[in-house]
């Protein structure tokens, strides 16, 4: 997919996510449909959510093969994104110390934190207080799949989803 096709596809997905969430507030329903939309639109290897439960991430709605069910705080790419409260882009999973290999097919990965609440209503101080409630994890069969276009679009989707919390 060319860079411009990628941007166009994300623009379409974001409009679909907004439309879906306008009619539904249940977070599991919304995570399930967001995972499906992204997975089908881009043909990723694995697309899904882990939800924060105490000191662990617990597997949530996803598309793709079976996955690890629980990830401790600070572990793997997902636990690192939660700990840093930032998106983590991994061009080559074999180069990421502590990467959790749920599948040997996965070669690159992006993990985006989902914060509770709506950033639109948060000032700088409030934003720092927002809790990470989940992470969106996407795996690719190819090296270096994810760039700033993915980061920017997926962070927007995470913000739209945050309204459900
Ligand atoms: N690779 C992830 C674990 C989740 S699976 O890829 C679905 C990680 O290191 O956090």
Describe this structure in words.
The chain has one domain (3-162): Beta-Lactamase (2-Layer Sandwich). It is of the alpha+beta class and 165 residues long. The longest helix is centred in the first third of the chain and has 20 residues, at 3-22. Strands 3-2-1-6-5-4 form a six-stranded antiparallel sheet, sandwiched between helices. The model has no long low-confidence stretch (mean pLDDT 93). It has five helices and six strands; from the N terminus they run ααβββαββαβα. The chain has helices at 3-22, 27-42, 76-84, 124-129, 148-162, and strands spanning 46-53, 56-63, 70-72, 88-90, 108-115, 132-140. Helix content is 40%, strand content 24%. Helix 1 packs parallel to helix 5 (148-162). The protein binds methionine sulfoxide. Methionine sulfoxide is lined by residues 46, 67-68, 71, 76-78, 99-100, 102, 106, 109, 137, 139.
């Amino acid at each position: 997919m060319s860079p411009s096709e990628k941007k166009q596809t994300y623009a379409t997905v974001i409009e679909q996510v907004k439309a879906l969430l306008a009619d539904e507030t249940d977070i599991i329903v919304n995570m399930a449909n967001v995972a499906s939309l992204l997975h089908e639109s881009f043909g990723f290897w694995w697309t899904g959510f882990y939800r924060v439960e105490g000191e662990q991430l617990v597997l949530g709605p996803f598309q793709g093969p079976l996955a690890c069910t629980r990830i401790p705080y600070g572990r793997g790419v997902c636990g690192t994104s939660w700990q840093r409260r930032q998106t983590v882009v991994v061009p080559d999973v074999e180069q990421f110390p502590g990467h959790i290999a749920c599948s040997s097919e996965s070669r690159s990965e992006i993990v985006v934190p989902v914060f509770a609440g709506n950033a639109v209503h948060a000032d700088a101080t409030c934003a720092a207080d927002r809790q990470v409630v989940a992470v969106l994890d996407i795996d690719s069969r190819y090296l270096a799949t994810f760039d700033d276009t993915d980061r920017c679009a997926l962070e927007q989707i995470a913000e739209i989803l945050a309204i459900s919390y």
